[in-house]
Amino acid sequence: MVPTTLMFAVLVGGVLTWVVPGGLRVLRLLWMTAFYIVWDATALLAMFGLWLAAACGLFADRPWYRRAHVRLARGMLALFFWQVRWTLRLRIELDVPDALSLPEAPLVVLSRHAGPGDSFIIVDRLLGLSGRAPAIVLKDTMQWDPAIDVLMNRLPAAFVTPASRRPAGHPGARETVHRIAAGLTADDALVLFPEGGNVTPRRRAARIEALRRSGYDDLARRAEAMHEVMAPHVGGFDAALEGAPEAAVLVVAHTGLDRLVDVRDVWRELPMDKTVTMRAWLHPPGAVPRDVAAREAWLFDQWQVLDDWIAARAPAD
To answer: Could you tell me which residue ranges the Phospholipid/glycerol acyltransferase domain spans (predicted)?
Structure first.
């Protein structure tokens, strides 16, 4: 299917480009779709080869098997973002102070959620540079992607079903995060998105109202004062530090894809021709308060830092 898919994308895209304005957006979109299909299939074939090398999964518990999947993930992400830079003209810049050196301890990464594919960017740019294996908790809908489904089930990661669809007795997000965090080593990094989704006006207002209904009026007022980010959920972060109390915490902000919320936004912005800027703040082991209320206030303090940093770089409307 590879040659026919690519030729079909070029042919149809070339014809539609004449009638649809926007910098060859049809051709770019079809090319990226064809590339992603081939990219996904290549990753599946490589993982099938690793499974065969492990005696059809008999030695899947060996350390080399996991290391091989981490290297595969890093190489596939590098290939993917090379294509993104070429086709969509998307540049990624990492603004990290020279003093940022990760300690020999498990790492919990807290990142804002804004724009399509930001979780891939976090893993590629931050965890790739540190050489750590990513541990991610994803929504179960991500299992519709075959390569992500297979890869994440071979790494210290998990898929979580929302409470509205979760069968009775199945673990929720908090229990899953605690289980993964308890198994973290100094070579791992657990990635969490405390906002729970991309920031939209509706979600932001609903989160503020939920804080008020729960009696957290002070946190609701703080959330209202933050215009670039959404009030974070503390449950997953709390579970992560309960499971790995010796972990360091890396707080990550990024901006550049903020306004890409749905498919219409992505279509309107093609080709993106954007620069994603990332900034990280490291908090060593023991820097986060142990008390639950103090930890929640600490998390809101970090989100205020993110809000100020993003607001200083937001383009004028």
So the answer is: 107-257
Helix (H, G, I), strand (E, B) or coil at 200: coil
In 3-state terms, what secondary structure has residue 104? coil
Residue 39 identity: W
Residue type, 91: R
Exposed, middle or buried by CB within 10 Å (0-12, 13-18, 19+), for 228?
buried
Element holding 218 (H helix, E strand): helix 217-225
Mapping DSSP to helix (H, G, I), strand (E, B) and coil, where does residue 159 land? strand
Looking at the DSSP bridge assignments, the partners of residue 133 are 188
Edge-to-edge strand ranges of the sheet holding 90-95? 90-95, 274-283, 248-255, 107-111, 188-192, 133-139, 158-160
Q: How far is CA 134 from CA 60, 108, 121, 184, 187, in A?
A: 18, 10, 12, 10, 9
Q: Where are the domains of the chain?
A: 1-61, 62-311
pLDDT digits 0-9 by tens, 145-182 = 999 999 988 988 888 877 777 777 777 788 889 999 99
For 144, what's the count of Cα atoms within 13 Å in the CB-facing half-sphere? 3
β-pairing, 248-255 with 158-160? unpaired
Q: How far apart are CA 211 and CA 213, in angstroms?
A: 6
Cβ atoms 159, 136 nearer than 8 A: no
